[in-house]
Amino acid sequence: MHQYSQGRYTTQGHKGIPDNHFEEEQGRKGFFGPVSHLIKPQPSTRWTQIDGPLRPHLYDVINMNHTVGQWQRLLFNSHVEVSVCWQNKSTSMPNEAFRNADGDTLYFCHYGSGTILTEYGLLTFSKGSYINMPKCVTHTFIYNEDSHFLVIESRASFYREPERGMVGRNAFYDPAAFGKPDLEQMHELKKQKNIKVIGISVKKMDVMTRFEYADCVYDTVGWKGDFFPYTLHVNDLMPMISHRVHLPPSAHTTFVADGFVVCTFLPRPLESDADALKVPFYHQNIDYDEVLFYHDGNFFSRDNLHAGMMTLHPAGFPHGPHPKAVKNIGSKTHTDEYAVMIDTWQTLQVDPSLNSVEVQEYWKSWMKGT
Ligand SMILES: [Fe+2]
User: Smallest Cα–Cα separation from 323: which of 342, 303, 305?
Assistant: First the structure.
């Protein structure tokens, strides 16, 4: 389809928006499909009433009731399940192992630190680490301190690196930054701490089965191949920016799987061109439900947020920054936020456990004067 235009329009998205006007992007296939930019005198987020189930949601995940050591499901569809998990150093079981036969597990460490025994060797993690544990890889967490994870389970495919296109192999992150499993270190730790893991709990169809052995299951003496668990820390992500124009969220894509992507928002300088939009643009991401987990920092585009909160913006209506953020943007030169975004092709179902921590008035937060 060729481009077509009517009335007042700009020749570059997110730039040169007429004074006292707002741009709204309406796009297909995330930020890769047919797209148009509408210029409007007011943002389309100025609804005064919403009747029906479709609405923006905000959940205070960090304060939800939970059972330590168990995954608490939050959101799900047939491609992905998003859960959270709290772990206490004192109740962890370094002599037991876990294997997920339902899918690949991407753990994101919201806080905490420790090491992970795997059949491929030892991994280490800390606050801000992604841990990509492929399907059926046996592993055991050993915590240095109480830890909290966002758990993103890919149930229809394995995780892949994003297409890097014209920015090349090393953009956003260099694959050399992956934390690889170290077999020698693992055997050393086993010896030092006298660790003998004899039980493996396997999750299949969300039901656990425990396999027991007479001796330690972490007995690999060597391996080769391109299938193995690894870590990636947010400090090793190099956010891409243009000083001239606001880049779409897809510029921050960290992992890709069938039916969804995982992106990471990081501190970065704001655009410096005088006519560049400096807040996330109002948009309808028509084909994707959007989940944002707030990890750390100052969440400048939203009011009244704290770390450990999560938003769900289902496809079907536009979203964008809050009025106060738009007003205050002139005084800012950089963002200071760390957040994990999950965009899903299929509609997400909400686990009833989230109801008790939903911030009910969130849908009103775009109203003028809020
Ligand atoms: Fe969005």
Answer: 303
Q: Is residue 294 classed as helix, strand or coil in its secondary structure?
A: strand
Determine the Cα–Cα distance for residues 24 and 236; give it in Å rounded to an integer.
32
pLDDT digits (tens, 9 = 90+) for 149-161: 999 999 999 999 9
pLDDT tens-digit readout, 224-253: 999 999 999 999 999 999 999 999 999 999
pLDDT tens digits for range 150-206? 999 999 999 999 999 999 999 999 999 999 999 999 999 999 999 999 999 999 999
CB under 5 Å of ion ligand 1: residues: 285, 290
Give tens-digit pLDDT for 94-104. Answer: 889 999 999 99
Ligand 1 centroid–CA 327 distance in Å is: 19
CA of 174 to the centre of ligand 1 (A): 26
User: How many Å lie between the centroid of ligand 1 and the Cα of residue 290?
Assistant: 6
CA 157 / ligand 1 centre spacing (Å): 24
Report CA-CA distances (Å) from 101 to 35, 36, 60, 136, 191: 39, 42, 30, 5, 29
Q: Could you tell me the CA-to-CA distances from 276 to 11, 251, 271 in Å, in that order?
A: 13, 17, 6
The residue among 178, 81, 74, 161 whose CA lies nearest residue 123 is 178
How far lies 79's CA from each of 99, 160, 261, 280, 366, in Å? 19, 14, 11, 27, 31
Position 120, amino acid: Y
Q: What is the pLDDT of residue 94?
A: 81
Identify the CA nearest to 217 among candidates 137, 312, 157, 131. Answer: 137
For residue 313, the CA-to-ligand 1 centroid distance in Å is 7
